Amino acid sequence: MRAAVIIPSRYASTRFEGKPLAFIAGVPMIRHVWERSKQASLPQAVIVATDDERIYNVVRGFGGEAIMTGTHHKSGTDRIFEAMSAPQYEKYDIIVNVQGDEPLIRPDMIDSVIELLSDSRAGVGTLKSRIATHEEILNPNVVKVVTDADGFAMYFSRAPIPYHRALTTVSSDCKIIFRGGIQEMRYYKHIGIYSYRREVLTRMASLNESPLERAESLEQLRAMESGIIIKVGETTNETIGVDCPADIEKVEKWLNTYS
User: Fold this and answer.
1) Which of 96, 104, 108, 232 can bridge 5 by disulfide, Cβ–Cβ 3.0-4.6 Å?
2) Residue 114: is its pLDDT beyond 80?
């Protein structure tokens, strides 16, 4: 199967306008994402899908491949679907969604989500990692995932799932109090990188927002509610997503420490 990485990248952002072009260690963020994606072994192409000519020109300027897409898309998945529908990309069977605000994405993570689709039962591949603190369990911005014995997703939630009744209690003011150690509890957080079979992504693009997706604001629940099977691999790698300007400093600190 032929695989391509598509990086959705838009200029307008309510929290950080022009984020893909923000400089990290003297290099535009979108270049960090593209170069790290190019280091993966399994994809045959890495393409930036953008709605802004400034991003398009920067990517083309450093030798990257880019395609212009519409400005009306509500999600990165919709933008990826438009890009993969272009005639020059019809040859790719697997599409990997690497977010444009993940400058520390690791090439082996990309290869891992592609390899997950060697299981013919899976339509989508993604990753999880062990949660390291009680604070992350309670943080609604850290998406939790529960999988079955074969690694297939059972549910994703912003709530602390599963609820370890023997290791937690609820205070009189309805706050969760942990009585167990983090190693005993075995919570996992979702790492937001996806691989899709082409036909599955086509199907997802035709689906309306689902009730669980609306409740949790998690797009992957739309796939699950429609019966699409998601296989989840485990990784020990961590990434630092850039949501706001303050996150740039965190990424640069990581680069200075580990690069």
Assistant:
1) 96
2) yes
Tokens of 203: 């199907």
The closest of 102, 214, 240 to 158, measured between CA atoms, is: 214
174 conformational bin, left if phi > 0, alpha if psi -120 to 50, beta if neither:
left
Average pLDDT over residues 164-191: 82
Q: 233-246 pLDDT, tens per residue?
A: 999 987 888 888 88
Q: Which pTM was predicted?
A: 0.90
User: What kind of architecture, by CATH, is found in domain 106-238?
Assistant: Alpha-Beta Complex (3.90)
Q: What amino acid occupies position 143?
A: V
Task: Scan for tokens 């609604």, then name that residue.
Answer: 140
**Has domain 1-103 been given CATH number 1.10.490.10?**
no
1-103 with 106-238: one CATH topology? Answer: yes
Quick one: how far is CA 6 from the chain centroid?
Answer: 12
Q: Where are the domains of the chain?
A: 1-103, 106-238
Query: Residue 226 has what pLDDT?
Result: 95
